[in-house]
Design a protein that fits this description.
Elements: H1 5-21, H2 23-27, E1 32-38, H3 42-58, E2 61-67, H4 73-85, E3 91-94, H5 104-110, H6 122-129, H7 138-149, E4 158-162, H8 169-178, E5 182-186, H9 193-198, E6 202-205, E7 223-226, E8 230-231, E9 238-239, H10 244-247, E10 253-254, H11 261-281
Parallel strand pairs: 1-2, 1-3, 4-5, 4-6, 6-7, 7-10
Antiparallel strand pairs: 8-9
The structure holds guanine.
Guanine (GUN) binds next to β3 and α7.
């Protein structure tokens, strides 16, 4: 089975859109997301454009602010302080990565916890690890929803997560643990990666390396979630971290790239924006 992230995301977006449509009448205004991009990183340009488009489709007010590559940390922090104080702004997202002169940690910590639609603020991260969640980060949240939509209950299953980033690997591992899976983290220093991946009943791959998981590395019946957004070095086309052609025949379910995790991340951002708004208007 191919897990159709595009369709599952469309259903979530439609639900968010209908709830957003009620906001004006109920609360006198509409959720407002501000997305900040610094510089012209080509992937970020595309991601930010897609986020704005999804907001438009969901009826969420959105503003994109672009700062030049040479922008100082001070200037970005000043803008964030202004947005934190603006009662008309419900969500603030600073697209990562940032240019070298700016500390991502400082920027993430500067965003008001209540407007942190990414769920990256230290207090929101602590909330996830201490089971007092405020907002879950978008990609891991989307992955859990994809598993649910595919009818996969992680309870008691062996889940293997490849990657240990703050954005995907660590939080999705924690969410799988909370869903009662037995979780193994693998990474660049893991010895005999294939031995670990063959044990997986659920395999989440967020390595950022094109097609590092091949059919010989997975067991029959595995459920594969591919978080990769890579360029195939041979064809130059968009591909995932998983070699779909060799893995799909063995998998009980698998997400494609594109059309898997990506659309779900954006739909969850829409939901998080609405949730931040609802928390604030209450
Ligand atoms: N860069 C890659 N993924 C993300 C994300 O989920 N949020 C932000 N802000 N930047 C990213």
């Amino acid at each position: 089975m191919i897990i159709d992230g595009k369709q599952i995301a469309a259903a979530l977006k439609a639900d968010v859109a209908s709830r957003t449509a009620e906001c004006q009448a109920k609360y006198g205004r509409t959720p407002h997301l501000v997305v900040i991009r610094v510089g012209e990183d080509p992937a970020s340009v595309v991601y930010v454009r897609n986020k704005a488009k999804a907001c438009d489709e969901a009826g969420i007010r959105n503003t994109t602010t672009v700062l030049e590559e040479s922008c100082s940390e001070e200037r970005l922090l000043g803008l964030i302080a202004k947005l934190n104080a603006d009662p008309d702004v419900d969500g603030i997202l600073v697209q990562l990565p940032l240019p070298r002169q700016i500390s991502e940690a400082n920027v993430i910590a500067a965003i008001s916890r209540e407007k942190d639609v990414d769920g990256f603020h230290p207090l929101n991260v602590a909330g996830l690890w201490q089971k007092t969640p405020h907002l879950a980060p978008c990609t891991p949240k989307g992955i859990m929803k994809l598993l649910e939509a595919a009818g996969v209950d992680p309870k008691g299953k062996r889940a293997v997560v490849i990657g240990r980033s703050n954005i995907v690997g660590l939080p999705v591992g924690k969410m799988l643990l909370d869903a009662n899976a037995t979780v193994t983290f693998c990474h660049t220093r893991t010895r005999d990666l294939a031995a670990a991946t063959r044990e997986a009943e659920i395999l989440v791959v967020a390595a950022g390396r094109p097609k590092i998981i091949t059919g010989d590395m997975v067991s029959e019946g595995v459920v594969i979630i591919d978080v990769g957004m890579d360029r195939d070095p041979e064809t130059g086309k968009l591909c995932g971290d998983v070699d779909f052609a060799s893995c799909a025949p063995k998998a009980a379910a698998i997400t494609p790239v594109p059309g898997g995790v990506g659309p779900m991340t954006i739909a969850c951002l829409m939901e998080n924006t609405l949730e931040c708004f609802l928390q604030r208007v209450k």
